[in-house]
Amino acid sequence: MEKEKDNDTSSAAAKSKSRAPRSRTAVFVVLGLIAMIVYAGSVALISLTLVPVWLPWTVAAIIAVATGLWGRKAMGRMCGISAMWLNYLIYVVIATGLFAFALLLANRLGAGECEPVQAEVTRVYSETRYHSKRVSSRRYIRGDPYKVYYIDVCLEGGINKPVSVNVNTFRKMRKGCYVELALRSGALGFKVIDSKGMHLVESKQPQKRSKR
């Protein structure tokens, strides 16, 4: 009986050990997906916000570094890594993207009323991207290609920003033409681009000069 109990105990321990690497792999996959989503979201929001590119990343990195002492402990419990410096590094990398995304999203969601502005189209272009195709539980390959369409517009202060457009709008656009879109004052003070209802205008309206 004792031998049977020992065998059961050893088999249970072996099963728990075999499950540990799988659960750790799952945690890394989830963390990797979170990092990809928040960094991609941050880049997309920055392109629609009139803010220096370095500013949200710098603020987010400062917050991530400041909270790293707490974050490395939480990361150690999730990942099962004993090296504190590695836990700290993983946390800072993920948290920087997360905080940047949160700041930019809060600024956009709390934006005020729209202010219509006219902007010159400085570039009309498309990019080819690829869908991801799942071939097994842990493997993805590049799938079918698809097109995304953009125009670059010159806004106040000579700032150039890319704006995503659909294929019908893309076909109407030409370099040097003017479009009317809206700017909204963000909750954190940074203006955001609202391209809903964007349309071509015949020519830029001349600025009113003050009478002397």
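the 2nd protein, sequnce then structure:
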Amino acid sequence: MKKSIGLIFLSALVMMSLCSCGNDAGSYGSQTASGSAATGGSAGKNEAAEKTVVENINCALKSPYRNSSNYYEDAKNGCRQRKLDGTFVRNISFGKKGAPSLVFVTENEIFYVKRIPSDNGGRGEEELWSMPIEKTEKGDRPAEKDAKYILKDEIVGWAYFYANEDYVVYIMPYDFKVFDRKAGKYLKLQGEPLDKKCPPNNVEYIADCVCGDHVFFQCKHDGLYMYTLGEDKIIPIDRRTHGSYSAVSDDKRNQIIYERCDRCEEFDKNEEGHQVSWYLYDCGTGEKKKLVTEDVIQTVCQKNGLKDLGICGVMFIDEDMLYSICDGYGFSFDLSSRDREPHYEKKFSDWLKKSKYNDYDVREIENGKCYFEEYDEDRDDGEYYITGYYDLKKDIFVKTDKLVRQ
């Protein structure tokens, strides 16, 4: 899920780790839900780190640096490999050339960039590399000696990024690039969106809104679009979506759920009296249908003595549950049920309104836990931290130590 779109239509930001959890495997301290840290003693630190099994929230949450077996985090001259419970596995070297940084992990590959400084002190070059992950009886093992260079581009390490064994896709404002790995060249795309109020291709990627081989993004004033890996076209899905509207990927059912204005004319997003509905888009069939209307949300509000909220806020999917949080009020919707009416999460909403958090502090909802983060402006460049989670099953909040967002 994400933050987004987990999920929100976001401006293209840097998809890279801001900071790692420790400096090396031996000194790593896994943060626990109780607020403690597990570290090795002065002797045998690596051995202690390898055997220590503690809750590590960053490793458990969805991330571009996680696959079904392991979580990877940036480290000096490479990365660290961990199990999903946070247990240290090994250090991995990306070589001595350049300043490396992770960008994406699949089941079979680790993608990273090397930043090569320029001679005149400018921005320099960005090289994209791939390291295969070998499957062994003892688990995944990245093959450091088999790392391969893919391409060079000054923006590849600063863009939203997605890749598989055949293609690399990266997106920033004014740039939507698809690289054919087998052919060794970029695809020339047809039907790229022409934004009516901004320069062409001023796209806003929907963070984490990748459904199978389909990548969804929004042109700032020109609707929702889809790109299918390997194709040479960008297809418009719905032109009645807004820059502030949300969308979320439902991988389990091969669909996305997004917000759409039923009253707006195409390209006229400033019309007063918006009426927003949740829509489903089936990535397999291309079918689009209405899921929940604003009137239904207002009916739920009236039943629970709430103000009329309409559809807004942020959305997340956790297994069969769709969650929406708007102005401090939480709603859930069972995607596997025939009941088409959202459920008001009263206990969670009552707690949220009294807490220091708001809708956009939600980092993720996963396994029935709603994770919150805070921004620490006291650091040199500022930093986001996960500081706790609300357990939607037990209706309790669990405070954590500051966990750097990955």
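The helical segments are 45-51, 57-60, 294-303, 346-354. The CA atoms of residues 303 and 344 lie 10 Å apart.
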